[in-house]
UniProtKB/TrEMBL annotation:
This is Carbon monoxide dehydrogenase. GO terms for molecular function: 4 iron, 4 sulfur cluster binding; anaerobic carbon-monoxide dehydrogenase activity; hydroxylamine reductase activity; nickel cation binding; peroxidase activity. [Ni-4Fe-4S] cluster binds at H287, C323, C361, C474, C504, C546. It comes from Desulfoprunum benzoelyticum. The lineage of its organism: Bacteria, Pseudomonadati, Thermodesulfobacteriota, Desulfobulbia, Desulfobulbales. Its cofactor is [4Fe-4S] cluster. It catalyses: CO + 2 oxidized [2Fe-2S]-[ferredoxin] + H2O = 2 reduced [2Fe-2S]-[ferredoxin] + CO2 + 2 H(+).
């Protein structure tokens, strides 16, 4: 390979201040260690490379070779007519809307291609082409079959009998795979949404036809000289996002549950301190649990444990980064070693014998960092390889899944002996409860009387719980690691808002000790604390990975069904947030929450400032169309209070604002009387 294509891991000219880079102690320690070893990390690069101001405003168009055309907002904003245009005449509105929906296309494609991989693997299971995967949750399979038009019973001699599970599996698998490219009708899962929401989608003309088509159509419409009406462009963005949330992601989540088991609450640890100096440390990183599920089995096999001992280790410690971590956490209690921004740091411990990556959110710089240690960096997916020579590619094939996993684990185990003297694992880890989902919330907070989410609804109506928030998404090196996530979540629960969390936000919440029932007494307002203590749940519920945001959509739908809080998701006292977003997937998620009726606030900055008309459309007009709208607020306390203000607005519209005043007054009175 030519010398100039090699990228150096060596020290940045300027280095990050660890205390400014993260609020998390082990992260600060590892940044310091990296700097001492002269190994550059994302935190240093964020200091040396500033973002492009024009790109940040969303008004740079590079969709053809006459550009890039840059249309920065004049100082002091547009006075009079906005005469800015690109060479072809594209307005700032067209450019910002095109860029926006291309992000949705990227995000929806990533989630949905993950979902497709799961659906295709499930088809192999149904066709009995693989032995390594099975149906672990037949009840879930039976519950989703009707949405795909697959019968779960048969009539024999006038009697209704249960249909053979293998037949149901084949029917569901074929119908699910067809969702990506069917020629007629609309996505099957749309009918899971509350009827008024389905009616809105119909009225707005945004019902997705199939998953792939909506993504491809974005690429077509945003090609030079096609769709030049920002409203029409944004409509297609909404349609593709719905194909993600109520399509690719939801099918992915469901079929993963069918094959690997529906999560149930369990206890685990979190943070870099889960790595063990005397064990082989394997870290799985990325998003798809297809391979990592097999790695769990391989790492727990007696053969590999014995091999680890022969190589001088006490055992094998498996942990995760990003959403692969969340998938393994929620089903097996495998601990997350860190969030997105801690991926390089896990290798800098010097104790990572192998990092196994699949797709999405993987830094190319991992290869440069791995080169400084003995760490084997193993790519496993045909669509996600790295150019650096030290990267090993072991392609994963679902038909030989266990064989591939054993090979990878063996490589890690045999690498244990190559560790250098430079091992430093930060001694920080926490305990957490994870593994919540639609079903387990129902179990913990529900009751069979008057609807399954009755207890939750009752506590919202009586005001103990003020509302529901979804806090999700990434870390972003342009903000202080974990600070926004944690400040926002704490502010919400302090104000009696129960939080559902996924993705790196959920890992952050675990690392900072918010995912335990004990957190309620320390951080919550009196109403939420009382509910959490009575029911024995944390005030922040970990609902899984980013594709599992579909669980939040379904949980919201269950709350609507349970009654007393309006007829649609947009009526609920609820709001969404992605405090430290950075990926295109986050924009797709944000848009499907907005398109499903949720007020959704992003942190950091959205690329809309250069096109105020488009921004206004997303922040205001969308509320009339879908019931939900966008917002952006970088200050975490203000961010949380914008969500709370929206929750209070919805409580007022439902006529339940007085109930909450009463609960709080009762509490104050009781305190005055010394009864607390
Ligand atoms: Ni979501 Fe999960 Fe993390 Fe962001 Fe990346 S891992 S899919 S995109 S960074 S939360």
């Amino acid at each position: 390979m030519a010398e100039e294509t090699k990228v150096s891991a060596v020290k940045a000219p300027q280095q990050a201040d660890p205390m400014e880079a993260s609020i998390e102690v082990s992260t600060q320690e590892m940044i310091r260690r990296a700097q001492k070893l002269q190994i550059e990390t994302v935190f240093d690069r964020a200091v040396t490379m500033k973002p492009c101001a024009i790109g940040m405003q969303g008004i740079c168009c590079k969709n053809c070779a006459m550009g890039p055309c840059r249309l920065p907002l004049p100082k002091g904003g547009v006075q009079g007519d906005d005469t800015r245009k690109g060479l072809c005449g594209a307005t700032p509105n067209t450019i910002a809307a095109r860029n926006w929906i291309r992000m949705i296309a990227g995000g929806a494609a990533a989630h949905s291609d993950h979902g497709r991989g799961v659906a295709l693997t499930f088809l192999s299971v149904a066709r009995k082409e693989t032995k390594d995967y099975t149906i672990k949750d037949p009840a879930k399979l039976i519950s989703i079959a009707p949405y795909f038009g697959v019968a779960t019973t048969v009539e024999v001699d006038g009697k209704k009998l249960d249909r053979d599970i293998d037949e149901i599996a084949l029917g569901v698998a074929e119908a699910a795979v067809a969702e990506w490219g069917k020629t007629d009708g609309f996505l099957s899962y749309l009918k899971r949404a509350p009827q008024p929401l389905q009616d809105k989608w119909e009225k707005q003309g945004v019902k997705p036809r199939n998953i792939d088509r909506e993504i491809v159509e974005i690429m077509h419409r945003t090609h030079m000289g096609v769709d030049q009406d920002y409203k029409n462009l944004l409509k297609q963005g909404a349609r593709a996002s719905i194909a993600d949330g109520w399509g690719g992601s939801m099918i992915g989540t469901d079929l993963q549950d069918v094959m690997f088991g529906t999560p149930a609450p369990l206890q685990a640890e979190a943070n870099l301190g889960v790595m063990k100096a005397d064990h082989v440390n394997i870290i799985v990183h990325g998003h798809e649990p297809l391979l990592s599920e097999m790695i769990v089995a391989a790492a727990q096999s007696q053969e590999m444990i014995d091999l680890a001992k022969q190589n001088g280790a006490k055992g094998i410690q498996l942990s995760g980064i990003c959403c692969t971590a969340n998938e393994l956490l929620q089903r097996h209690g495998i601990p997350p070693a860190g969030t997105f921004l801690q991926q390089e740091l896990a290798i800098i411990t010097g104790a990572c014998d192998a990092m196994v990556v699949d797709v999405q959110c993987i830094f190319q710089n991992l290869a440069n960092v791995a080169k400084c240690f003995h760490t084997k960096l193993i790519t496993t997916h045909p669509i996600a390889r790295m150019e650096q020579e030290n990267v090993i590619h072991i392609e994963f094939d679902e038909h030989y899944a266990m064989q591939d996993a054993m090979r990878i684990v063996k490589m890690a185990v045999e690498n244990f002996q190559n560790r250098g003297a430079e091992v430093m694992i930060p001694q920080h880890k926490t305990t957490q409860i994870a593994g919540f989902g639609v079903e387990s919330i129902q179990y913990h907070l529900g009751g069979s009387f008057r609807g399954s989410y009755y207890t939750l609804n009752d506590n919202i109506i009586n005001g103990r719980i003020r509302g529901i928030a979804g806090v999700v998404g990434c870390n972003n090196a342009r903000t202080k690691h974990n600070e926004e996530h944690i400040t926002i979540i704490k502010e919400l629960i302090k104000n009696d808002v129960i939080v559902l969390t996924t993705g790196c936000s959920a890992i952050a919440a675990g690392i900072h000790g918010l995912l335990t029932p004990g957190a309620a007494a320390v951080h919550c307002g009196p109403g939420l604390a009382e509910v959490c203590e009575t029911v024995g749940i944390p005030p922040v519920l970990h609902l899984g990975s980013c594709v599992d945001n579909s669980r939040i959509l379904l949980a919201a739908t269950e709350v609507v069904k349970a009654g007393g809080l309006g007829n649609d998701i947009c009526d609920l006292p609820a709001a969404g947030s992605a405090p430290e977003w950075m990926s295109e997937k986050a924009i797709s998620i944000g848009q499907y929450f907005v398109s499903s009726g949720v007020y959704t606030v992003f942190g950091y900055s959205l690329p809309l400032e250069g096109a105020p008309v488009v921004k206004d459309y997303l922040y205001k007009t969308m509320e009339d169309m879908y019931g939900g709208m966008w917002d952006c607020e970088a200050d975490p306390v203000k961010h949380a209070h914008k969500m709370i203000a929206h929750i209070d607005k919805k409580r007022k519209a439902l006529g339940i604002d007085k109930a909450r005043d009463r609960v709080l007054m009762d509490m104050a009175d009781r305190q005055k009387l010394g009864m607390e």
